[in-house]
Amino acid sequence: MSKQDAENYATASLFSLKGKTALVTGGSSGLGLIMAKGLLCNGARVVIASRSQEKCDMALAELSEFGECWSLATDVTVSQDRKRLLQFVESKLGGLSILINNAGANWGAKLEDYPDEGFEKVINTNLSAVFSLTRDAVPLLAKSALKDDPSRIINIGSMDGIHVPIVQRIPTFAYSASKAALHHLTRSFAVDLAPRHITVNAIAPGFFESKMTDYVFEHYKQDIEDDCPLHRVGKPEEIVGIVTYLASRAGAYTNGTVIPVDGGTSISKGKRPWTE
Ligand SMILES: NC(=O)c1ccc[n+]([C@@H]2O[C@H](COP(=O)([O-])OP(=O)(O)OC[C@H]3O[C@@H](n4cnc5c(N)ncnc54)[C@H](OP(=O)(O)O)[C@@H]3O)[C@@H](O)[C@H]2O)c1
């Protein structure tokens, strides 16, 4: 092996994000905050966005210890907010090499009580806003893209877009549908954007601790663990690992995939001894 090969294969170089620029929607808490930290720790400069100014401020204070980071209060479902966000990204970062569509919402209710506005809210946040923001971010992503180092779009899907979730006992019709559609939108975008040297992949997480999973962790953590072949929930570094792979030189040839990070939960039949 040549000295050059040895350098190229070493993880410090292969997974480095030095010089990269990233936008993480929903970066003020949960998985978004974890991913933003991971990006910063591996050398990227990062903008985070979420609706609450207070949450953005708190997250920024935490993230700034790890590298160069900015935040902008943004509702991704609002067209003017998205436009302002992309102008902000351009002014702070110059271009954009990594877009992480992570902002997400959920709504659980029995079928007969499931309101239209709940369904629309979830679809708007998890699917329609991803389509619109991505479409409008393409010029910035293309500006940073190289044939051998494409820009990356990483959509945060869910294992619930692969299987029908029941562990939480409350149906989440819109959530599962939105994530399944997001997985397929990922494939459509991947085909369309490849000629512009932009790759598009989705991560389908299983259960990770966050505000979104507070309730289900409090009530059904044991069932979640029993349902997972590895008998545990995910750890923050396991999300950072997959994002770093997809965003770095290591993941440059991975395109149009949906990668479950769920300990095998979505492919197991699961044991469901509970009755209620
Ligand atoms: N945690 C899990 O186990 C798990 C599993 C599978 C998939 N996921 C996915 O991971 C992503 C992050 O979820 P999480 O678990 O980390 O939940 P979380 O802690 O509730 O984070 C959601 C983030 O999205 C932001 N957000 C919500 N609506 C928004 C909007 N309209 N515009 C801009 N930002 C918005 C929230 O901030 P504001 O309130 O300030 O807007 C927050 O920063 C979601 O797409 C979720 O579906 C999570």
Structure ligands: NADP nicotinamide-adenine-dinucleotide phosphate
Q: Please name the CATH architecture.
A: 3-Layer(aba) Sandwich
Order of helices and strands: HHEHEHEHEHEHEHHE
Amount of helix: 40-55%
Name of the CATH first level: Alpha Beta
Query: Structural class of the secondary elements?
Result: alpha/beta
Describe the fold and architecture.
The chain is an alpha/beta fold. The chain has one domain (18-267): 3-Layer(aba) Sandwich (Rossmann fold). Helix content is 45%, strand content 14%. The protein is built from nine helices and seven strands. It has helices spanning 3-9, 11-14, 30-41, 53-63, 79-93, 116-144, 173-193, 214-227, 236-247, and strands at residues 21-25, 45-50, 69-73, 98-101, 151-156, 198-205, 258-261. Strands 3-2-1-4-5-6-7 form a seven-stranded parallel beta sheet, sandwiched between helices. The radius of gyration is 19 Å and the shape is globular. It starts with a helix and ends in a 15-residue tail after the last strand. It binds NADP nicotinamide-adenine-dinucleotide phosphate. Residues 25-26, 28-32, 50-52, 55, 74-77, 102-105, 125, 156, 158, 205, 207-208, 210-213 line the site of NADP nicotinamide-adenine-dinucleotide phosphate. The site of NADP nicotinamide-adenine-dinucleotide phosphate has 29 residues, from helix 3.
